[in-house]
Amino acid sequence: MTTAQPPGLDLSYKIDDFIAGTRRDSLYLYRAIEDTMVDLATATPGGRVLDVACGTGKQAMRIAERGCYSVGAEASAEMIGVGRWIQPESRALMVRSIAESLPFVDGSFDRVICQGSLDHFADPMAFMREAARILKPDGRVVIALANFESVSCRAGRLVDRAKRRLGRPRPPWRLYWETPEDHNVRGDLPYVRSLGGDALALDRLWGISMLWLFSRYGQALDLLPERAARTVWGGLDRIARRRPQDADMIISVWRKPEAAAWRTTG
Ligand SMILES: C[S@@+](CC[C@H](N)C(=O)[O-])C[C@H]1O[C@@H](n2cnc3c(N)ncnc32)[C@H](O)[C@@H]1O
User: Fold this and answer.
1) Which of 41, 123, 223, 227 has its CA 20 to 30 A from that of 184?
2) What digits encode the pLDDT tens for the residues 56-72?
């Protein structure tokens, strides 16, 4: 008899594990998420910001450039090493540590951010509790998570099923709506809404980008003049903001429950 094993910690993520799209639908999306995270992280001028599972620390370094005290926490020594090699002069501090047990004292950060990483964690709820613990009373936790129930994923699955019915063989690679092997959870809107548990209260939530990776959408954007491509992408992004259930990425902002209670009673 085999028993299900709890997910293990991934301490050896490699730069090659990160497969980045090169078409405009990917490039605009990456840029929009990064800008959103950096803007939200630096809302308190000179504040203390922690980027959890920061990878190479790209965002942590941009945050440091804006005058914040910026720390990146990351499990993989390789990712930290690549980041330091690319930007040795950055003032961002990179700390090898795991999201589920962060080596920082209580109430020490204005912002805790986590971009595209929570679905890799062995225990995302343990991370959320840790984020709440190290957050200042008035601080915010910001999570960006891929939505595997986006309109693009749902439509992709439908088209794929139709192709199979027509006898077309399944490609040997992972299809974009399938959960990657190195993910321990599958992000979608109900999952994101459940993340706070008893530790954090939801402040606001919205979507970014729509139709990412769908069929020929990326190719079509690449064929358009830059301005027209941006207009199409921007129009879909505005819809995604109001319809996070259909968006490619979901941004959620969290605060301490006591801060929420103060807001409603104070
Ligand atoms: C897809 S990458 C995202 C990196 C970065 N946030 C970005 O947006 O470029 C996921 C990262 O999560 C890190 N990671 C996975 N599990 C972790 C854990 N339990 N604690 C800390 N980092 C973890 C991996 O090492 C990897 O660098």
Assistant:
1) 41
2) 999 999 999 999 999 99
120 lines ligand 1 (CB under 6 A): yes
> Is ligand 1 within 6 A of the CB of residue 36?
no
Q: Does residue 121 have its Cβ closer than 6 Å to ligand 1?
A: yes
Q: Does residue 116's CB lie within 6 angstroms of at least one atom of ligand 1?
A: yes
Q: Is the CB of 74 under 6 A from ligand 1?
A: yes
Q: Which residues neighbour 128 within 8 Å (Cβ) at sequence distance 6 or greater?
A: 141, 195, 196, 197, 199, 200, 254
Q: How confident is the model at residue 9 (pLDDT cuts 50, 70, 90)?
A: confident
Q: Whose CA is nearest to atom 4 of ligand 1?
A: 55
Atom of ligand 1 nearest to the CA of 51: 6
Atom number, ligand 1, closest to the C-alpha of residue 99: 20
Note the pLDDT tens digit of each residue in 19-31.
788 999 999 999 9
Domains of the chain: 21-265 (3.40.50.150)
